Structures are given as C-alpha cells and as structure tokens.
C-alpha cells in the first residue's frame, strides 16, 4: 500500500477552497451514532471464544486481554493506578475497553488503514465533532487532540497529554500517558497524520524520530497543563503539558528533535486566549472544565476579553463587586496580555494547517473541509 503522505496547500494560499468530496462543514455527531460503522449494541455484547480468537488472530486484541479475564472495572482501575505503575490508559488493563476497541477496528476499514499507515514519530490529530467542545471552540477548527506515535503495528501506541478531552471518570487522565489506538477507535471520528521529518534524508529522519519519541517518553506521568502555556512560569523546564504542546515540544524543542515545526496561528483568537489565561491565573487549576466552558462560549460569541474575565471572576469570586471586580479584571488582562508573545500557545488546529505533509482518515464518511477553519 502507498503510505506516502500527500501535501496540502496551506490555508493562507488555499483560502476557502474545498477539497473534492469534503466540501460540507462537519456537524456534531450524537453518541448513539458512534463509532465507525459498528453498532453500539454490538460493542457491549459478550464475546464468544470464537470471536475473541478471531480478533486476536487479526491482531486487533492486545496480548493483555487474556490476562484480564475475570477482572472487574474497579480492579482494572486499581491496577492501572497502583503506585509505580506505568502511566498508561485503561486499554492496558480493562478487558471491556480492549474488546470494544478491537471490535471497532475490525468493523472500520478506515481505522485499519490508519493503523497500517501511522509510523513511529508521527503526530496524530483527532476530531470528535462534539457540540460545545472547549478546544474546538477556542481554536476554530475540528481537531481537539494531538498525540505522538511511539510504536507501529496493528495496534499502534501513542504518548499523549490527556486532560480536557479525556473521558469522564477515567482515572488515567490529567497527565501524560501512553495509549493505544483502541482508546480512540471508539470515540473519535476523524484523524490527521503529520510527519514532521518527512523531507529529511533517511538517516537524519530516523535520528529525529528517535529524539522526538525519547522526549515524549521522558514526560510520562507529568501533569496536564490546564494553564495552556508553553512556559513553566519562569522556573525552567517543562513541568506540565497540554496535548499539542507535548507533540510540538517533542519535535521543535532543542531537548527534543529540534526540527522546524510550521504552525498556522489565528491572530483573531489572541483575545480569547488572553481571557483564558487571565481567568486561569486567578482561579488556578480547579475544576478546569467548569471554568473553561463558560469562557469558551463567550469567546465564540465575540465578547470583549475584559467582559469575559469579569463574568468569570464574578462566578467564583461572588463577593467581589463593581470597581473591585473591574480593577482585578483589568489587572489580570494586562498581565496576560504582557505575557502573550511568550506563551506560544499551539493548538491541534494550528499544527493541522501549518503546511506539513498530511494524510486524513474519516471513519464516519462525514464531510469535512480540512483546509479552512470554522
């Protein structure tokens, strides 16, 4: 099979030109429509030995599946989070997650092609098309997550910083962890592969991939960065990561591969990001989703950053009123604005349209124009 990644015209040149067959904007996908072409009721049905053997023979079931027989969800969570355990997703300990992912892979040719195509070091962007998603709302594009491939094969494995986009009740979230394609087969609809070292000579490409993957591995277990900056408040070193920051730093930083990573930032989002940083500075990383979602809605409605900040402050500082609230909002906005040039926030969508060679996979057959922001 041809695994050459096709180059797409960057959005600055493409304007609003649509890709043939992908012209209509994406719509939100309901939970009961997920995933791929597999009926949700089939995913939850008990497996026969014959089905398990067939999925194992095809390479869709992990080797840990047999070891997990009879293990409850609670036991799987305890095993995943035991002291000293590797920072991994539930697809390494939870039999149900393994089975659902394997069934989805078996019934979704596009995911099988993705598994065959992705290579070690590739950046994989994912999209769910969920209404009210805070990441897509803030960044103006369909992609809400980014991860780096660290193992090729029928069941590719990734390292990711998982936080805002993590599943509710997943104890393995809010940190940098290792995951499998099974974790994303069930929930995600569209995928984009980026290959940053594609243009390098073979020996240089191999060395760059090794450095990027090593950098990502060194971050396993670090916390998720709910402040959404590439800085560590002047202390030096990266102590926490959000998803696209991790893959960007793995490839672009001197501690990683040191490869130039083009991005397509949208300057119109700067005010919204300043508001987010200002509010998070005041609130701290407490109930991040509850803090972020109302801000995102106001950013999408076009409200002024200062009005957004004052509204958010009023919700978690109810005793602050009038001049005091306005003064605190102005102070926070000034600090966030002063830091913005150095924050270098990079979203999954910024990476998607930076001009790197790409390959797209859409498991639902839904229309999506990958050349334009919403």
Helix content: 40-55%
Helix/strand/pairing category: alpha+beta
**How many whole angstroms does the radius of gyration measure?**
21 Å
Mass-distribution shape: globular
Order of helices and strands: HHHHHHHEHEEEHEHHHHHHHE
**Poorly predicted runs of 5 or more residues:** 1-37, 366-374
Largest sheet: 6 strands, antiparallel
- The largest sheet has its strands arranged as 4-3-2-1-5-6
Strand segment tally: 6
How many structurally independent domains? 2
Terminal-residue CA separation: 33 Å
Number of helices: 16
The whole-number mean of residue pLDDT values reads 75
SS strand fraction: 5-15%
Q: Main attributes?
A:
16 helices; globular; alpha+beta; disordered C terminus; 374 residues; disordered N terminus
Quick synopsis:
The protein is of the alpha+beta class and 374 residues long. The protein has 2 domains: 1-265 and 346-374, no CATH class; 267-343.
Any overview of this molecule?
It is a single chain. With 374 residues, the protein is an alpha+beta fold. The protein folds into two domains: 1-265 and 346-374, no CATH class; 267-343. 42% of the residues lie in helices and 9% in strands. The protein contains 16 helices and six strands. It has a six-stranded antiparallel sheet with strand order 4-3-2-1-5-6, with helices on both faces. Strand 2 (145-151) and strand 3 (157-162) form a beta hairpin. It is globular.
């Amino acid at each position: 099979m041809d695994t050459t990644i096709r180059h797409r015209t960057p959005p600055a040149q493409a304007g609003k030109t649509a890709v043939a067959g992908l012209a209509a904007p994406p719509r939100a996908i309901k939970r009961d429509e997920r995933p791929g072409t597999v009926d949700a009721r089939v995913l939850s049905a008990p497996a026969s030995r014959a089905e398990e053997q067939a999925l194992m023979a095809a390479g869709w079931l992990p080797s840990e599946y047999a070891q997990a027989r009879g293990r409850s969800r609670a036991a799987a969570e305890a095993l995943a989070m035991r002291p000293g355990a590797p920072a991994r997703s539930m697809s390494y300990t939870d039999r149900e997650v393994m089975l659902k992912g394997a069934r989805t892979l078996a019934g979704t040719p596009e995911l099988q092609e993705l598994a065959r195509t992705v290579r070690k070091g590739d950046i994989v962007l994912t999209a769910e098309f969920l209404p009210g998603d805070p990441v897509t709302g803030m960044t103006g594009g369909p992609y809400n997550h980014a991860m780096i491939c660290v193992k090729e094969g029928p069941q590719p494995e990734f390292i990711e910083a998982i936080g805002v986009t993590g599943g509710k009740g997943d104890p393995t979230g809010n940190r940098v962890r290792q995951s499998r394609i099974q974790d994303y087969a069930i929930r995600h609809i569209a995928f984009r592969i980026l290959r940053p070292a594609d243009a390098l000579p073979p020996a240089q490409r191999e060395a760059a991939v090794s450095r990027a993957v090593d950098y990502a591995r060194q971050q396993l277990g670090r916390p998720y960065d709910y402040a959404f900056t590439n800085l560590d408040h002047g202390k030096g070193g990266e102590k926490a990561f959000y998803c696209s920051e991790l893959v960007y730093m793995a490839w672009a930083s001197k501690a990683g591969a040191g490869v130039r990573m083009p991005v397509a930032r949208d300057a119109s989002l700067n005010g919204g990001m300043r508001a987010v940083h200002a509010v998070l500075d005041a609130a701290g990383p407490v109930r991040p989703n509850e803090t972020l979602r109302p801000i995102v809605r106001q950013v999408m409605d076009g409200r002024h950053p200062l009005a957004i900040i004052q509204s958010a402050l009023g919700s978690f500082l109810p005793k602050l009123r009038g001049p005091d609230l306005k003064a605190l909002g102005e102070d926070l906005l000034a600090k966030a604005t002063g830091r913005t040039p150095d924050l270098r926030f990079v979203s999954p969508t910024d990476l998607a349209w930076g001009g790197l060679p790409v390959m797209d996979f859409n498991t639902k057959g839904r229309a999506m124009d990958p050349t334009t922001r919403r």
